[in-house]
Amino acid sequence: MNPTPIPHLERKHIKLLYLRLTDSAPLIVAKEQGFFSRVGLNVELQRETSWATLRDRLIGGTADGAAMLAPMPLTLAQALPQCEETLLTGLILSCNGNAITLSRRLSEELGISAGSADGAAAGSALARYLQAMPDTAPPLKLATVYPFSSHTLQLRHWLGVAGLAPDRKLQLLVLPPEQMVAALRRGDIDGYCVGEPWNTLAARQGLGTVVAACNILLPAMPEKVLAVTGSWHQSNPGTHLALRMALLQACNWLGQRSARADAVPVLARRDYLDLDPADLRPSLADQLHLGDRSRPVDNPGWHLFAHPDSDSGRPTEEKARQLLELCATFSPVAGATTHAFRADLYQQALDAVRLHRP
Amino acid sequence: MSERLGIILVDDQPERAEMVCRRLRAAGYRLLAHLNSAAGLLPQVDRHRPDMVLIDIESPDRDILESLSFINRHHPTPVAMFSARGDADFITSAVQAGVSAYMAEGLSPERVAPAIEIAMAQFRSYQQLRQSLERTQRQLHERKTIERAKGLLMAKKRLDEEAAHRTLRNLAMNSNASMLDVAEQIINHLQSQP
């Protein structure tokens, strides 16, 4: 293999932030498989607990970049109206990867305890249940991971198809991904939309039933992006290019099924996701666990990582517009910007990666 | 200041919370409530109508707070530290100190900035306290381990104290390791012998 041509690096020591999620894999793989070091970068990965913390650490300048929810850079003005910093991305790391899980109790009351991938029957069952529910009953609570997240869009889309929206009987709230399963176990919430492995984990433990795979509700929705601040990009264009190259190569590597199997024990390590490999393996093998009593079903495209030969990693303004249109169905998005998605920066990384392909 | 600002503090570190509360009170703020977690935050916010909420930046409960403010405009809105002083240095030092702050709609950022600065200073000095405590404990552990290794050498190899110390030091120098590392190896080694 030819050595990777390296851009001029303004800085070599880099800190990237991530959450305990299966689709943080590109960062971990880029470090462990040497994709970062091959472009001359020495990268420290720092795990964060919640999206708000990750966002503020990045904007506060205590890290160089982050694996971030795709709508976050677009809606920074909504989340932090007074913040003068901007966020941008030149690489969509992955699409898909989320599902909607209801508590076992609720799924049994709805008569859908076998689970489903397409969400349709579960949606209608929930609509009937809410209609029959007395006004005096405590509301059902469904959690998502951030107000402006693919999860919120997917959850609201699923509810919308069933003619439902949050109201007095049905509340949406925000919880960090890694707290979802515990909140479901305690009965604080009745269900959630979250990224893997937190659906598989609840299903395998019999705490919850998966009622919709989000890649079936809304296929190929951008999920995680490599985000940096506008001012960081200005002062580190070469380092940013090297980062995108290394991560695009890591995503490409994750396109092979055998590579994904190899990645599982590494992701599971205590210093990374600190999880049982058995909970990480299914979604990376396109296997969907609906509950503890049913056999897993095939779910092609459960995780769709960026790939040099496909367009899923390219952050186009069109994709940004589609995400913002979905956000606008429940919140004003004035001041939101499609410019945060930089297809030109993606093209730079793609050209650089192709230069040295055999 | 025409009216004293009312503050709710959410902090799961009791000692630090105590420090922050004391300083804020001394500076003339009203401490409406101190909570260990945001679990009971919603009723407290409804009851007290705080001007601002101060919360550890690492607290996962921040998400709950943000979703409240997003759903209901009566609740404290995002995030005071990004507007209070307007400059990047202020944001960076708040983030580094680990403070995040939410303020009520319509409040001027200038009015909440001093409270954030007090919290930042207390978070930092608590951090230093913790670090110096950890350092002391580490030194204590190190001394105990070395003394124990010396004792084993003295008992099993029939060395006097001076010679045991010299042995440890030479081993450390020759293997380019610390006295502590060598002491731990010796303890493991000599203990496994009958």
TrEMBL record, chain A:
Listed GO MF terms: ATP binding
Coiled-coil regions listed: none
Keyword Cell membrane: yes
SUPFAM superfamilies: Periplasmic binding protein-like II (SSF53850)
Record-linked PANTHER family: ALIPHATIC SULFONATES-BINDING PROTEIN-RELATED, BLL4572 PROTEIN
GO cellular component, one term: endomembrane system
Protein's recorded name: Nitrate/nitrite transport system substrate-binding protein/nitrate/nitrite transport system ATP-binding protein
InterPro entries: NrtA/CpmA_ABC-bd_dom
From TrEMBL, chain B:
Modified residues (4-aspartylphosphate): D56
Organism listed in the record: Microbulbifer yueqingensis
Pfam family, one: ANTAR
GO CC aspect terms: cytosol; protein-DNA complex
Occurrences of domain ANTAR (ranges): 126-187
Molecular-function annotations in GO: phosphorelay response regulator activity; RNA binding; transcription cis-regulatory region binding
Designated name of the protein: Response regulator receiver and ANTAR domain protein
PROSITE patterns given in the database record: ANTAR, RESPONSE_REGULATORY
Origin organism lineage: Bacteria, Pseudomonadati, Pseudomonadota, Gammaproteobacteria, Cellvibrionales
Superkingdom of origin: Bacteria
GO biological process: regulation of DNA-templated transcription
Boundaries of every Response regulatory domain copy: 6-120
InterPro entries hit by this protein: ANTAR (IPR005561), CheY-like_superfamily (IPR011006), Sig_transdc_resp-reg_antiterm (IPR008327), Sig_transdc_resp-reg_receiver (IPR001789), WalR-like (IPR039420), WH-like_DNA-bd_sf (IPR036388)
